[in-house]
Design goal:
The longest helix has 22 residues, at 216-237. The strands form two sheets. Strands 1-8-7-3-4-5-6-2 form an eight-stranded mixed β-sheet. An eight-stranded parallel β-barrel has the order 9-10-11-12-13-14-15-16, surrounded by five helices. With 530 residues, the protein is an alpha/beta fold. The chain starts with a strand and ends in a 6-residue tail after the last helix. The protein is built from 20 helices and 16 strands. α7 links the parallel β5 and β6. The protein binds phosphoenolpyruvate (PEP) and magnesium ion. Magnesium ion is lined by residues 367, 395, 416, 418-419.
Length: 530
């Protein structure tokens, strides 16, 4: 076998070497496709139960929704009809592909995410035909697939010590599957444009490459890089007690992003001072209606109870775009604008947050703020004895344009770089082009600078809670621009703290130089500065 290097986009750091298990490859499979759908449903139910037991409630709910799809009578009728003329595996793949294409054709990104789930269900059912046993790995392996949904990554990760790495033909860095891979610490490369079919592969989640059938030299380099990483991780973990202060004395508050109690616990364990972004909508992506106060309280209480005395930044529901539950299908509004149009739903969530905050140091964060009136409207709803600070997330050029006025109404600001990158540069967040490095694009850095200036003028702190905040090189630019807090996936905290302790922001004080640094970084990481 000759060695071949395939380039993609780095999606989750680290190096993995191992045999390849193909999730989308052709399989020889006989049997009844409807029984395979039953098996898929049973596997999803079992995996959801295991995830729930391990505290991953949101991921469990995604699997439950996929289970309902497996039982959908329309899908089953189509599988039966196609099964008359096609082999069972083809009938399953074609029927699910047709359903997915119908959802794709509606041009709604939330439904497109569901289309991916239907395709994933087809793959799972074919796997079941071959007696596959779901997406469990029987031995340590690198998983290669065209694309994976977050539910599949979560299920694969139940065998965390066996899931060595992920190599996807498609996929995107800010997709929820990639966010999950980073949360789990599994190296991942996306957008390599092919399904890796090989006995052995090396996934380099830092360089964004997959080495197919690596030779002795590549293996030796990969092993050395893995050993360096393990050493660096141990060294970085040993600094957990040390403050995140730059060499020129700037203190940076490190917080973690979380949606589950398991992530809050992992973040605190890795030295986070608290939670800088609690994504509340992920628990309700399949809700049949707006959640009521008790449902919010039940979802939040287990997380907030871990945060006594620490900062708990609870973001109000960020529905819309790729996070649209079925009952809101077809809507165009997003974030706080959508919630303010349904004030009873916002009020119910705010009551629940206040009710279960307990001893946590609560902050309320509003997604996609674009006007000072939006902050004022929420403040009116939060009137009481000791209302919590209200933060405004700036995630669009429209928000940046009015940030000076917004800063006069808010108590702190937070920058959502995942959305800011796509809205500033006109990229699709679910595409490989929207790589993390694009957050260093000079136009994005210019937006961030406007936010830090407005915050400084109003005496507010600024956090960044998009994925780029967990990238030490890019986070260094953010800190140089005046960002005070970084909120990142728990697995990014050790590296980030070590990088901040090495940083001297006096090296990067001129805005022109920063723009150049950003341009150079984007270029080096394979992005394009238009
Ligand atoms: C962001 O857009 O950067 C962000 C943190 O919010 P989300 O990823 O949940 O849209
Ligand atoms: Mg966002």
């Amino acid at each position: 076998m000759t060695e071949r290097v395939v380039r993609g986009v780095p999606a989750s750091p680290g190096v993995a070497i191992g045999p390849v298990v193909l999730l989308d490859g052709p399989r020889e499979a006989g049997g009844d496709p409807e029984v395979a759908l039953d098996t898929a449903a049973a596997e999803l139910a079992a995996a959801a139960a295991r995830l729930r037991e391990s505290g991953h409630v949101d991921e469990a709910e995604i699997l439950d929704a996929n289970r309902l799809m497996a039982l959908d009578p329309a899908l089953r009728a189509e599988v039966r009809a196609l099964g008359v003329t096609l082999p069972p595996d083809q009938a399953l793949l074609d029927a699910t592909a047709r359903h997915a294409a119908l959802l794709d054709a509606l041009g709604d990104s939330a439904l497109a995410a569901r289309a991916d789930d239907v395709r994933a269900l087809g793959r799972r059912a074919v796997n079941a035909l071959g007696g596959g046993g779901g997406f469990r790995l029987s031995e340590p392996a690198i998983v290669a697939a065209v694309d994976l949904g977050p539910a599949e990554v979560a299920e694969l990760a139940l065998d965390a010590d066996r899931l060595l790495g992920l190599a996807l033909a498609r996929g995107a860095v800010t997709s929820h599957a990639a966010i999950m891979a980073r949360a789990l610490g599994v190296p991942m490369v996306v957008g390599i444009g092919e399904l890796v079919a090989a006995d052995l592969a090396l996934v380099d989640g830092d360089a964004g490459t997959v080495v197919v059938d690596p030779g002795q030299d590549a293996l030796a380099r990969g092993n050395a890089s893995r050993a360096r990483r393990v050493r660096a991780a141990a060294e970085a973990a040993a600094t957990r007690e040390l403050p995140a202060v730059t060499r020129d004395g700037r203190a940076v508050r490190l917080l973690c992003n979380a949606a589950t109690a398991a992530e809050v616990a992992a973040g605190l364990e890795a030295g986070a001072e608290g939670v800088g972004l609690l994504r509340t909508e992920l628990a309700f992506l399949d809700a049949p209606r707006w959640p009521d106060e008790d449902e919010h309280a039940a979802a939040l209480a287990p997380l907030l109870s871990l945060l006594g005395g620490r900062v708990a930044t609870v973001r109000t529901l960020d529905f819309g775009a790729d996070k649209t539950p079925p009952f809101l299908a077809g809507i165009h509004e997003r974030g706080i604008a959508l919630l303010l149009a349904h004030e009873h739903a916002l009020a119910a969530q705010l009551r629940a947050v206040l009710r279960v905050a307990g001893a946590a140091s609560l902050r309320v964060l509003l997604p996609l703020v674009e006007s000072p009136e939006q902050v004022r409207a929420v403040r009116a709803l939060l009137r009481g004895d000791s209302p919590p600070p209200i933060g405004a997330m700036i995630e669009t050029p429209a928000g940046v344009a009015r940030v000076t006025e917004i800063a006069l109404e808010a108590d702190f600001l937070s920058i959502g770089t995942n959305d800011l990158v796509q809205s500033t540069l006109g990229l699709d967040r679910e595409s490989p082009e929207a790589s993390i490095a694009m957050a260093a694009h000079p136009d994005v850095l210019a937006g961030i600078r406007s936010v830090t200036r407005a915050a400084a003028a109003a005496g507010l702190t600024v956090e960044v809670c998009g994925e780029a905040a967990g990238d030490p090189e890019i986070a260094a630019l953010f800190v140089a621009l005046g960002v005070d807090e970084l909120s990142v996936a728990p697995t990014r905290l050790d590296d980030l703290r070590a990088a901040i302790r090495r940083l001297d922001t006096r090296d990067a004080l001129l805005s022109d130089e920063l723009r150049e640094d950003g341009r150079e970084l984007v270029d080096r990481r394979g992005g394009v500065v238009a």
